[in-house]
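#structure-requests
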Amino acid sequence: MNYLWKHRHWAVVLTAVLGAGLGQAAEKDVAMPKGIKVESYMGWDKAIRVTADAAEVRLVAIPAVGGNVLRYQLMGENIFWEDSRTLGLTSAQVPKDFMPGGYQLEVNDMSGSRSWTAPATVKELRDLGMTIVGDPDPVSGLQLEKEIVLDPETGDAGIVQRLKNTSFKPQTCSLRARLLCKGGGYAMLPLNKHSRLPAGWGIRRTVEGKSVYDHYKPALPTAKIADQTLFLETTSGQETWVGADCSGQWAGYVQGQTMLVVYYPFTYTNKYAGDGHTVEVGWNGAITEIAIISPQLTLKAGETLTFPMKWAALPVYATVANLKQARAQAARIAPSPFK
């Protein structure tokens, strides 16, 4: 995260490149910040491509769908899942359940939960990074901003998510960062030694027509706990959800030749909504979702909830085909930078 903060006040802002003029600037070959290119991507115009050449990592964000990151690749392999049925479309064309894939944010407030995929504005481009901001929600007055930057040497992505209350009334809310990955891999969650959950984790079940988490006797044939870490095989085609109040400040996922590690801050004094989970993992065979949940805060008028993350993409040279091999990969995960 040091690289993010070091470069967040990058002095030269190309005003011709921002907002509506962004595409025109690209056509005129206006000099771009280091590692930045504006291009068409899978049917969307003015996508922002960020490349860390030394690490062979590339990231692509789409302002037209709320600044979603649809590509985070290592050596040409994209860890994220993309829905081919929605490529090039926007939330205006698919007003219900629009989910193009990749990384997107969901806001939970007093009115419920909803994904924010409306077109957003590029506020700033700078070396290996950008800031994208959406319009305030007309009902709640909440406004989302994402700051994204790649480390030039490691390819690690620093993500700062900000939710601002632009209304005149207090808002109780939290963020859910959804990372939709290609399915069929292995997820890893470091369990909390001081968990308030009886079993330390839970599995979602249907009871009397309602979905609830069983935190007393969760069990899965494709789950194993070792080294205080929950390992999950996500190859089953049956939709399954698991959640935990993890304190290790990371979640891992191995698929193909890549291991994705998502780091995030956690403190015991924070309050978390619902079941108190900080991480949830869901899968259906085709998709594995890693959901990182922010603390729940009550924002006064003008206040902002700030929730940072760090992504790391690590190469996997040996095939991971069982939970024992997934455990070997977990030993490579570095401690969280947020500790």
